[in-house]
Design goal:
Elements lengths: L5 H4 L12 H13 L5 E5 L6 H13 L13 H7 L6 E5 L6 H10 L10 E6 L6 H12 L5 E7 L7 H4 L3 E4 L5 H15 L5 H10 L4 H14 L7 H8 L5 H11 L3 H13 L4 H20 L11 H11 L4 H18 L5 H14 L6 H17 L9 H9 L11 H8 L1 H5 L6 H6 L2 E3 L5 E6 L4 H6 L1 H12 L4 E6 H30 L9
Parallel strand pairs: 1-4, 1-5, 2-3, 3-4, 7-8
Antiparallel strand pairs: 6-7
Helix pairs in contact: 5-6, 8-9, 12-13, 13-17, 14-15, 14-16, 16-17, 19-25
Amino acid sequence: MSYIALYRKYRPKNFEQVIGQKHIIKTLKNQVETNRISHSYLFCGTRGTGKTSTAKIFAKLLNCKEPINNIPCEKCSMCVAFNENRSLNIAEIDAASNNSVDDIREIREEVKYPPTDGKYRIYIIDEVHMLSIGAFNALLKTLEEPPSYVIFILATTDPHKIPVTILSRCQRFDFKRISNVDMVENIKNYMLNENVSIDEDALYYIAKISDGAMRDALSILDQCISFYYGENITLNKLLELVGAVDDNIFFRFIDAIVNFSEVEIISIIEEIIESGRDISQFVSDLINHIRNLLISSISTNEDNNLDISKEKMEKLRNQASNIDRQYLIKLIEEFSKIQANLKYAFDERIVLEAGCIKLCSVVSEEDITDIRQKINFLEKKLEEKNIQTVYIEKENLESKKIEELKPRELAIPEDIKVAIENYKMVVNKFKEPEKAFLQQAIPKSLEDDFLYLVCPNALVNRLESMKDSIQEALFELFNKDYNIKPISIQKYDIAYKKVIANESKKENFNNINDMIKLFPNSILNIE
């Protein structure tokens, strides 16, 4: 007998063997027990989660002559015919290759005749979203009012591509991704049956990269068993085969990124290249590692939403504690861009190195997350050298020096004074929403040629974009060109205090000059 691939060999043969879909299995079992069978079902979910297998088990169970506790007997003529792929009552159709109107018309003709043996004629249409619009229209009437002995089971990975007229006529079941724990537990039993020795951490890695799809996991295992036949399969051997890297390298890489160490990053990339690892796979795994850091920084000590060991969870929390959360989000965004660029890159290594060096060397003034991370890095360096960190804000110092100065009336130029007094006329020249923005601003002066529009900080850019329109309105009203300057309330207060402080300095200077004129040099000594 020829070799059977693992994913075919261990395909579920009854509901008890279906993994991770208890909510669906329970519903289908109850429908069989209570004889509440629907005429159409829609099974949705990602690849390898058991949609087609469940559909086949359900179809076999419905036609089984002597089911035992909702399990096909495997002995009656219907079960034997199904197992030998010669059942005339159960038809499996691949909509990816049979998606025309004519294919559906054949079904419409067939359903007119009841089954010669068994209760139901069942049609399993796989990847149903691939049907053409005409084929869906041809299926619609039959799906709406099929004969009592006909059942349709539609399976798809993209339910949003199915017309709502079809969706509304089906009972929908959403298949979940299989959890890492469930997958590892079942693969262990499969490996015992195959007499294959494999480490548990290797199994967890297979579960992780298969993304909840058991078929993918078994295909990877098949490849590993063939390559390392008769050997114990370790995590390092598995990483060597799939072109991935050990988790420790991600911790080192992130440490280098947050410490702005270009030399260390280039060294790690060189290490990855020399070991023959795939750059795209590395970046994909790195993004997943950063995501795990973000989740670990949010979850409490009791929570473990990552399906990983406690030791690794603790290691993730330790690394995440030294990184700003917003910076982690920025890293995910930046490496996602690098991942997209790798698809079209002539040399993937250059793209990755350039992106990492940019992350380490550039601090964007507009992006506060860069600044925060840079401060965290400098604080850490200072702590290592036992140097105390002192924060000094220049604007706060200046404001403290002059905050005690007494306010006074400013000498406002006559033309600006006119504009301030008639500001409501300017506002009324505009319509919503611009009018609402101008109503939140207060016209003021600082004894210069500008008409300041003092407003909340969030409105400064908006008023800046309206500057030309405001100047035109002022010219129409007062026949004069005005210099408009939107300014935040905080900045205006600081500027106002500076004007008063400068005036005080001038007064002091004038007083000294007056004293020099009054007294001879021999009497008054100025230093």
